[in-house]
Write a structure and sequence with these properties.
Length: about 350
């Protein structure tokens, strides 16, 4: 099957179905890290199903995700998860107009499982294939809550990414700021390990911060003149505070250290975000990524948005972490633009959102 045939005959037939009034249904597949997920999304904004198989219990004993273990779990689960997503959505592959799959960034072995599954179904059933960037998926999780209003700003906060992304239309992304070292979620996990908290550490830090007091002096990395972030120095300051206390035979309250760390992170994230909003036209502020589930950050952003009169959208907790519904939502936009992939699609662990 040539690329021309792929994009003209198959795509045009299914597009005709949609134009005739049939709902546009995208099957989303997500396997970038340690969740195996499949979902059916209708018209880009309705979740018909969103099945997620988490591997947290398997990786807890290692204190983090083991790539080979993650890949093996994906292989074991992917077919069952896709079947369950179709069953819950009460549809078959004949009702699917496109298959959207995360092809980067992520763990290469994990990505390849999802991409291989999507390509196999696409080839066998003649269903158009759509490659989706993982972070685009996180951003588009917000579209299940509210329709996008452009121009908008997305604050991306996850285990591997901390970015300020500006959008003037669907599917276009401009990087305004990024982390220069550790992503915010990575910093949370490293601080959690220093406090001997279980994996994943972010939720445990957030829980302790809610009951602690910010009495431990910790730095804020402002990187003046830019909208970039840096959390490596903050992480090191936490470790230094713990080491100094140990050498003196003193004990630092984990709750207070967590509260101090989280206060530093949130202050920088919120302040930089709203400084940018003051300088650029922004109709809507979106929050995306796993750290968007952080209660302290959600509260601080909500309070500041209300004070500044900014329209804020944050996904529910179930859509903050990795899931296939967000991939289906982002894939819908790519499908509507005619941005289809062919069977040469491959996993790209270092895929950039901004140079595609």
């Amino acid at each position: 099957m040539t690329t021309y045939t792929w994009k003209q005959k198959v795509y045009n037939k299914r597009q005709h179905d949609v134009e005739s009034g049939a709902p546009l249904r995208i099957l989303g597949i997500e396997t970038s890290c340690d969740e195996t997920s499949a979902a059916v999304v209708e018209n880009g904004r309705i979740i018909r199903s969103n099945i997620i198989s988490s591997q947290i219990d398997s990786h807890k004993r290692f204190g983090g995700v083991v790539p080979e273990v993650a890949s093996r779990h994906h292989v074991e689960n992917i077919t069952l998860i896709i079947e369950e997503a179709l069953r819950e959505a009460e549809c078959t592959l004949d009702d699917i107009h496109g298959i959207a799959v995360t092809y980067g960034p992520g763990l290469v072995g994990a990505l390849l499982v999802g991409v291989a599954a999507a390509k196999a179904i696409s080839f066998a059933r003649g269903i158009p294939l759509i490659g989706v960037h993982h972070i685009a998926g996180h951003i588009y999780a917000n579209r299940f809550m509210e329709e996008f209003q452009f121009p908008l700003l997305a604050l991306v906060v996850s285990g591997g990414h901390t970015e300020l992304v500006y959008m003037t239309e669907h599917g276009t992304f401009e990087k305004i700021g990024e982390t220069r070292d550790d992503a915010v979620g990575e910093a949370y996990d490293k601080v959690a390990r220093s406090l001997h908290l279980p994996y994943p550490g972010g939720p445990h830090i957030d829980r302790l911060a809610q009951i602690g007091e910010g009495t431990v002096p910790l730095p804020r990395a402002w990187l003046e003149g830019t909208y970039d972030f840096s959390f490596s120095g903050l992480k090191s300051a936490v470790l230094n505070a713990l080491n100094k206390a140990n050498m003196k035979g003193e004990t630092i309250s984990p709750e207070n250290l967590a509260a101090s760390f989280q206060a530093s992170v949130i202050e920088v994230l919120v302040e930089k975000t709203f400084r940018l909003i003051a300088e650029r036209p922004v109709k809507q502020l979106l929050v995306a990524g796993g750290v968007a589930a952080n209660k302290g950050l959600r509260q601080a952003l909500t309070e500041r948005a209300e004070k500044e009169g900014v329209s804020l959208v944050i996904p529910p907790l179930t859509l903050c972490t990795d899931n296939a519904a967000m991939i289906g939502a982002a894939g819908t936009i790519e499908y509507q633009k005619g941005n289809l992939a062919d069977l040469s699609l491959n996993g790209v662990p270092g895929l950039s959102l901004f140079s595609r």
